[in-house]
Amino acid sequence: MGGIADPRDFRRALGAFPTGVTVVTSRDPAGQPRGFTANSFTSVSLAPPLLSVCVAESAASAAIFSAAPAFAITVLGNRQQDVSALFASKAADKFTRAAWREGALGMPLIEGGVAWFVCRREQTVRAGDHFLLLGEVVAYGHTPEEPLGYCRGAYVDFALSQSALAGLGRSVSVQALLEHDEGLVLLRLAGGALGLPAGHALGPATDPASLLGVLAGLGLPARLDFLFAVFEHAGDQRMSIVYRGSAGGDPRPPAERHPIGAVPLERVADPALRSMISRYVRERVEGFGIYVGDDSSGTVQTLMREIAP
């Protein structure tokens, strides 16, 4: 078979797939910590628990990682772009410039990560100009914080922070598209119309007028994962910010659960909301984006932050 005519274009095509960002660490034969940034990380098996990461044969630490009996993977949080850049560099003092701790099997773990895994090396598999480092997980941990994303040469923000909401300087409606037992949670409004759970701010749950407070009052403990839409209302200064996520618990009226494939869109009186729910149902299969615009027109895009040079 022939090779790729334009490797740079091939790399750009691969970059269209959004990933998380990790730092892979181990120790060299002298016991010194070594590490590099990688997004070619994936879960391989649950029984036994196996993970893998691809390492370039040309990497300075390739020989160390191919022979090390153990390694660790830290999934970076969305405020750790500097850590990502540091471990992607050739700096010799990475572990003096980044906070880390020792985990199981003596493996270095980066502080502030949203998840971490310590693995015993299972095997290495040569694959072209890389090798696949396969490990069995012996210890792990995770937090509810947002991960750092990467797509098309840029870091991706998966959520809008509470401070950003507070700084908008306008009337804000924070809403949620929540899945619950294969259904979508909607609220029954006056006259039988349907709407979304909404609050004047994201939280806290102790504020009954915030989104998290409203959800708590409906008996819906929720996990809000990512932004789904941000749009202005034509003719005034209101802004709607919509998260998508999942909910547990036993919904209380006026909350209703409607099957994803049979949402009664004709009962959603607001046309912008009706369009947004229709898009949600479609993108749940095709893949999600973020709507940015007003209540009549806009674009679906990923919110990104460029990598510093």
What descriptors fit this protein?
single chain, 309 residues, 9-stranded mixed sheet, 7-stranded antiparallel sheet, 17% helix, elongated
Walk me through the structure.
The chain is an alpha+beta fold. The protein has helices at about 5-15, 60-65, 80-90, 95, 160-165, 210-215, 270-285, and strands at about 20, 20-25, 35-40, 40-45, 50-55, 70-75, 100, 110, 115-125, 130-140, 150, 155, 170-180, 185-190, 195, 200, 220-230, 240-245, 255-260, 290-295, 300, 305. Strands 13, 14, 15, 16, 17, 18, 19, 20 and 21 form a nine-stranded mixed sheet that branches. A seven-stranded antiparallel sheet has the order 3-2-6-9-10-5-4. It has a four-stranded antiparallel sheet with strand order 1-11-12-22, with no helix packed on it. The protein starts with 6 loop residues before the first helix and ends with a strand. The model is unreliable at about 290-309 (pLDDT under 50).
Summarize the entry for a quick read:
17% of the residues lie in helices and 41% in strands.
Average pLDDT reading = 84
Total DSSP helices? 7
Order of secondary-structure elements: HEEEEEHEHHEEEEEEHEEEEHEEEHEEE
Q: Gap between N and C termini, in Å?
A: 37 Å
Topology:
Elements: H1 7-14, E1 19-20, E2 22-27, E3 33-38, E4 41-46, E5 49-56, H2 62-67, E6 70-75, H3 81-88, H4 94-97, E7 100-102, E8 108-110, E9 115-127, E10 130-142, E11 149-151, E12 154-156, H5 162-166, E13 172-180, E14 183-188, E15 194-195, E16 198-199, H6 211-217, E17 222-232, E18 239-247, E19 255-259, H7 271-286, E20 290-294, E21 298-301, E22 304-306
Parallel strand pairs: 13-18, 17-20
Antiparallel strand pairs: 1-11, 2-3, 2-6, 4-5, 5-10, 6-9, 7-8, 9-10, 11-12, 12-22, 13-14, 13-16, 14-15, 14-19, 17-18, 20-21
